[in-house]
Design goal:
Structural class: alpha+beta
GO molecular function: acyltransferase activity
Helix content: 10-25%
Oligomer: single chain
Protein name: GNAT family N-acetyltransferase
Shape: globular
Strand content: 25-35%
EC number: 2.3.-.-
Keywords: Acyltransferase, Transferase
Number of strands: 7
Distance between the termini: 14 Å
Order of helices and strands: EEHHEEEHHEHE
Number of helices: 5
Pfam families: Acetyltransf_1
Low-confidence stretches: none
Radius of gyration: 16 Å
């Protein structure tokens, strides 16, 4: 098995005023919170969005592991729908002390390049800033952060920076090269 060098960039906002919202795309695009924890739906989103960019860390999760994660207080999944069809999602995970991570964010391949991503990231980031308003007992958000890497889409870093995220760390690590898993085995060419 061969290894590849993967660069991971960590970015943050430290005040709600850091957010630079994108304009809403044309058409019937809606963003809705998935309020009922659903391992099936969350795994569908994860595999469908990340299948062509080698998201693999959660593919081995059991149903119980998905449920445990999704039922943690403050974990939220916000889904973008284009004319009723899931187009992408953003997953928020509180880390304590007012820190919220945008743990996953992205669009299904068919919905990329249509201005939905900037809008979804803007909306999801705003929901990270007001997360404590929906979850009594959580500290008010003081920092929102995320990471992206060289395996992600070519416009990911630009989208984050255009929304007001600032780079605070860069790491380069060797990782085993894995085949593109697709939303199901064999969906994308290796």
């Amino acid at each position: 098995m061969t290894n590849i060098a993967v660069t991971t960039w960590s970015l943050e906002q430290t005040a709600p005023t850091d957010l630079l919202p994108a304009a809403a795309p044309d058409g019937d695009v809606r963003i809705v919170r998935s309020e009922v924890p659903s391992p099936e739906f969350s795994r569908f989103l994860y595999a469908s969005v990340g299948g062509d960019i080698r998201w693999t860390d959660r593919l081995g999760w059991t149903y119980a592991r998905w449920r445990e994660h999704l039922e943690r207080p403050g974990v939220e999944t916000w889904v973008a729908y284009d004319r009723g069809t899931p187009a992408g999602y953003v997953e928020l995970t509180p880390g304590g002390d007012g820190v919220v991570e945008i743990e996953y964010f992205g669009l299904l391949p068919a919905f990329r390049g249509r201005r939905i991503g900037g809008h979804l990231l803007s909306y999801g980031t705003a929901r990270a800033w007001d997360l404590a308003e929906r979850w009594p007992g959580l500290a008010a958000t003081k920092r929102v952060w995320l990471h992206t890497c060289s395996k992600d889409g070519e416009f990911a870093m630009d989208n984050y920076q255009r929304r007001g995220f600032r780079l605070f760390d860069t790491k380069v690590e060797e990782e085993p090269e894995v085949a593109t898993p697709g939303p199901w085995p064999g969906a994308f060419p290796a």
